[in-house]
Write a structure and sequence with these properties.
The structure is a homotetramer of 430-residue chains. Chain A has 430 residues and is an alpha/beta fold. Helix content of chain A is 49%, strand content 9%. A six-stranded parallel beta sheet of chain A has the order 4-5-7-9-10-11. In chain A, strands 1-2-3 form a three-stranded parallel beta sheet, covered by helices on one side. Chain A has a two-stranded antiparallel sheet with strand order 6-8. In chain A, helix 3 (78-92) links the parallel strand 1 (54-55) and strand 2. Chains in contact: A-B, A-C, A-D, B-C, B-D, C-D. Chains A, B, C, D: Keywords: Isomerase, Manganese, Metal-binding.
Chain lengths: 430, 430, 430, 430
């Protein structure tokens, strides 16, 4: 299934070396969980069923407006990106879908692309449209906005691009369209805050109308950047009101880095789910703004608390609960393959910890207003080192126990550095 | 009408001294505005019609959890507070209503209280309920929440208190009930984020059901404090969703200090109005958290931008637009009478500046995406010194041109320091 | 040694029930660490040597300016507080010193107080002065500041109070004086930002001059509250410049909740240590402002990263490295004894994790700019569940393996609720 | 002097149309100020003497990591940029110096460049070095830092580049070197927070040693971006400690957008000046992060408060007070010429308002702790519309009364759109 990627023998060989330690740790943890009446294998099973998509653009080095520092062997085409995403999934066994971005990933034959992906073990996840950049040859500019533009022609172009994305997505087997617009303003007064929102609603309504019956339209809000005074869809409030206006197929997507400082994101997750509008996540981490750092690298406890809400939501919502999960990071200082493997690992570990919470004890303490007991119910689960569970799930599916070591051993990047065209310097914009 | 307050002769005498300069400045500004085809008297007329309520509790010195430093002559009863609020309105002529708080302002005879207020020129504005503190003799404690409590008895007590507030309000001639709850949690896990919101909705629904036909229920959100991990109604998103669930008489109240850092509050105002839920304001200013500083003292430009949205909203919404305006500040280092007079002045000045915006030019520039021209349309108005307009409106209504000087001349506080009981030391809580 | 507190038999009995599980987990972790060439007992030994002080005022319920909700059995005198702190240390064996606050903890005979503390196993840590509140009978008011006041008499009173604190501290066996002032302003212009700092420097210099040779003066900075526009010692920059002006006995104290949003506190720790001015910590956690939540309850990863810097600093600085550690929290919704035990546990666990970092691997990766390897060196240690290590250290010293369960079993609070005087309602200030 | 720029006749003609209104407003303001014993002409004189530099790179459109939207006629060479900066100064008469950036502005003959600048009325201000991007052909990469890099060769290259900048600066007549590094990390552990600072200190010390006797080295701190976990010089504390280590020629530069949320920047200005280290400013405005918006567009009151500190500092420091002032903005949605003219105008207006403060009244109120009177001393000055003063100073120097209208009338940009090479699409990095 994963032809031409990393040799399965190498994985097996590295795993053989790591197996004894893993088994020992897994057994010890199993005994510990047994004492709490938790069957470790059931948790491992849940982790085995868990997956998160990776974005094609995340396979390349990211950067800032100041600079981008490419690495040798970095992929520059959708074909090379699929290959690298194949390696990620081959080693972590948790990222079987890629999320493409158009026009960046445009090809002539999408059926062929779908087969190419399948050949490296991948399917396609949510389609991402792009109306925040101008493309060569484009007739209208997004300089003053896209779906909320004052220009009919600009809005029409943006709508048509999104509808084209749906069409491509159908060919690729996707069923979600993620709409993020950078529309907004840099000066007080630059835009009419209400009329621009109304124009957005009207335009996104046209996209919604073109959505196949089993598709979702995911609205992604963002507080700021590229707009630095106001953004049309700046917060979850604007997002959910727009989603309500559109209808049941419209839902809200939460990017962890798109919020105001100090905001309680797990409560936003709970609220969106309470109103039936929790559509999905872009996982990453941040300390300052939309830093797009590796998931859980800055605040792993927050990630756990979000999964705690997701586990609650899953229990309360039943089969209707199927949020779309994607990693969305900018890998400015690491090898993107390493970052995405370890991020998937961290996300899965957060889910595993949330599954380990003694919910009966938690709910009981909540009812009794025993704040300490309720908190400790969460904290006990958070403290548990679930590394063996996630590694076990991975290894059983054919992945690598020690992903970084195995990947580095494989010499993948060095080999690609020989084969692939060199990326030019990213000199930055300002 | 304002018996026993500051002598009208003193006001007249001080005004006589200040009149010539005011007339000169007013005339000069009038000529400047004439060149822009604005009749200064029409703006002055709008300011004359403008009013903002003051809270009874604002008449006393405020403090922090660390300390409160009382001043001699500070009011300690609702009767003394009404007197001080009467002085505020006598001098600024813009605060003809007070907003009471229960149980703080409880009396035996509300009809008498209404007459007492009328005697110093005041009526009653929105009623504020209090379920964030325990009162002596209260059967249930709000230690673990009020409207969202897990205890049926606690929720019932909180609902009944609010319904009693409505009843008192009817006697006082009010028609708004402002509901702010401090409910929330200090620990992850302490409360179920969804169930607590559901309990809140159910309880506030009972209050809503008891609302007279011409009343509004104003929901006030707050990001944090007294709860430091999660708050049930923490942001405008939670607030508007609750208001939508309740029905048309429920609206959202914006306190300027209750938001996350960096948030664009004027856009929140625009969104709430767009969805018919802009119920009112608690005016104050802040640099860090809910600092409750004097309105416009930290960021007067933001206050102007909010009024710019309010003027837009008024034009678009017509007669249905009638948000409730109140000053809500904590006067920790000033004489509260001085702070509230100057705050009313600053709020009115922000409104005057917003009225001076060339809206045709603004909208035209917005349509053309001429960011600089649009911004300058706002900035030109903001730069104008509207002091003479607000002072003129005040003086014509019988108020003081120079409010601080007149107030200090009157010796009001020193006189009250002789008459009133001394406030005890506020030693703070931590 | 801990007469009259919780019965040692109860602790032993509860421990007997928990011992087998602890031994099993400890052994399993020992085997895991062995594989990384770490002797678990050496880590346990370091934890056994670790201690953190608790503040006397933390033994009572805290609150906000809105309300305080007391609990039955809450201590109200220094004698009762010492008793409760004795229980904390009896169960956690990690908090053998209390940090008193004057005038709150004033008594007639400090030698007797010292013996009283010793009788429950406690000594005295840093003395905290208080010039942010007015006390009954005080001749000067701190309403307009203390050490930075424009009034000579006020500054003199504040200096004398601090010198009295030193004198009391000598009698109690302390050797640190922590100086936090709430001095600052609520309005632009209210204070001259430079002259107020100069007055502070002059006044604190007089305190410094009165310091015994082996004492330290710890300067505590805070961004805001009670002052909401400017604070005289608002950040680590002002703090270290003041400490440099004073001399070698002056150092900086870091309270984790006193910083601007998003700030990298661990880097501040590194900078202060780099310049020889890292004096100590007030441990707590926060999400919004100076929330004074339980240590590690919101962001345990940040606490780990701070201890990572402390371990680095200790290695680099040798015996001169002896920062003062104290818990400083406001226990608004929990039993303070439970919160402080669990906070000490979380702080010690963070230290244990920092000790588990493979520093050779970390430094090697840093030198090679291998960001992923460096990060994973930290993350591997952070992921380890060190609960057995801290519990083992505690149990070996006579403490309780399961502190909460043991404490609740003891019925301490219910017993005290019978014996102690009831606390009045804390109605809040605003 | 300003050959080939905008025709002086056009300026004169437009001014003739605007003169009467200006004279009327100026006279009215003069009368108002007379009443406060302020001679308007003395303020106008101070504004005439005021200047602020503009950065060469600011003459082009800026952008974000997502996109850049060029405009027709945008300058792409240092020669075209000088021309545009000449126009700015021709119209506003307040920006007689440009601040170049290397290697962006490299030419073969700097003497010729100096003459070219002089021909359009310009001199050179602080030199900006660039070690945050890699240049084609550069031997070492700044991917892992520059002055703080772990690599000797990288640090040496960065030092040599800065020394080359000094050499170029001498030829251009400059006497300040501004050093901003993007050095930092994206992951906890990635860099040793202390060792990286030590390496920075050592490297910048080599640059300092190469500084001519009458030069200053300006250290610019920045909280985040491009590094998203830690930055080597992240705050004013790190900046001033580094400047102190270096010596008297090293000073600190304050960029208004480089601080944590909510921070009191005017107090930082006061502190830096108190310790003799206030080197200069990069003026801009921001709402979220380093937004680089037009000066005073978001928070004009903060800009006024900063100038209030600068006026205080000037009075206290005498002739030693000579901070370097520069506009540093990213013009993403406006014509850069318009933005820089209006920014200079807003900066000068803030200075004018600060000069209008009644300092005797302010200081007296501060001494008496009369917070309201002190605040009103500032607020009265802030409220004054100083537009006529700044316009008068400009017009008397030959600039345009209405800068935007005159500039647009001139057709400068349209003409340049014919002459200049088109800028390529800035497609952004992520």
């Amino acid at each position: 299934m994963t032809h031409g990627l990393i040799s399965d023998e190498l994985i097996a060989e590295r795993n053989a070396r790591a197996r004894a330690a893993l088994d020992e740790d897994y057994a010890a943890l199993g005994k510990q969980l047994d004492r709490a009446d938790i069957a470790i294998d059931s948790i491992t099973q849940s982790i085995s069923s868990f997956s998160v998509a990776v974005p094609t653009w995340g396979a390349g080095r990211g950067g800032t407006r100041f600079a981008k520092f490419p690495i040798p062997g970095e992929p520059t085409t959708i074909h090379e990106k699929l290959e690298d995403c194949g390696v990620i999934n081959q080693l972590c066994r948790m990222t079987p879908r890629v999320s493409p971005h158009f026009p960046w990933d445009k090809v002539a034959d999408y059926q062929a692309l779908r087969e190419e992906a399948a050949a490296v073990g991948l399917g396609f996840d949510a389609i991402n449209s792009n109306t925040f950049q101008d493309q060569p040859g484009q007739s209208q500019s997004y300089a003053s906005g896209s779906l909320s533009s004052t220009s009919d022609a600009v809005r029409q172009q943006a709508v048509e691009h999104n509808i084209e994305c749906i069409d491509i997505g159908r060919q690729l087997g996707a069923s979600d369209l993620t709409v993020w617009v950078g529309d907004g303003s840099n000066f007080p007064g630059q835009q009419d805050l209400t009329r621009s929102f109304d124009r957005y609603l009207e335009a996104v309504g046209l996209i919604y109308a073109a959505l196949p019956g089993d598709w979702r339209l995911l609205i992604e809000h963002k507080m700021f950047e590229p707009a630095f005074y106001s953004s049309v869809i700046s917060d979850w409030g604007s997002s959910i009101l727009a989603a309500q206006e559109l209808g049941p197929k419209a839902q809200c997507l939460v990017d962890l880095g798109h919020h105001a400082p100090n905001v309680n994101i797990e409560q936003i997750v709970a609220r969106l789910n309470r109103f039936g509008k929790l559509g999905g996540f872009h996982f990453n981490d941040s300390k300052y703004g939309d830093d797009d750092l590796d998931s859980g690298s800055i605040n792993p406890h927050q990630l756990f608390l979000i999964f705690n809400e997701l586990v609650e939501a899953e229990r309360n919502s039943g089969s209707s609960f199927r949020p779309s999960y994607m990693i969305d990071q900018s890998h400015n200082v690491t090898d993107p393959i390493e970052s995405m493997m370890m991020s998937a690992d961290c996300i899965a570990a957060s889910y595993a910890k949330a599954l380990l919470v003694d919910r009966a004890a938690l709910h009981d303490a909540q009812e009794r207003n025993d704040a300490m007991a309720a908190f400790q119910a969460l904290r006990r689960a958070y403290n548990i080192d679930v590394t063996p569970i996630v590694a076990k799930a991975r290894a059983e599916a054919g992945g690598a126990i020690d992903m970084i070591a195995t990947y580095r051993d494989s010499g993948w990047r060095q080999r690609k550095a020989q084969e692939r065209q060199r990326v030019g310097l990213g000199a930055g914009i300002v």
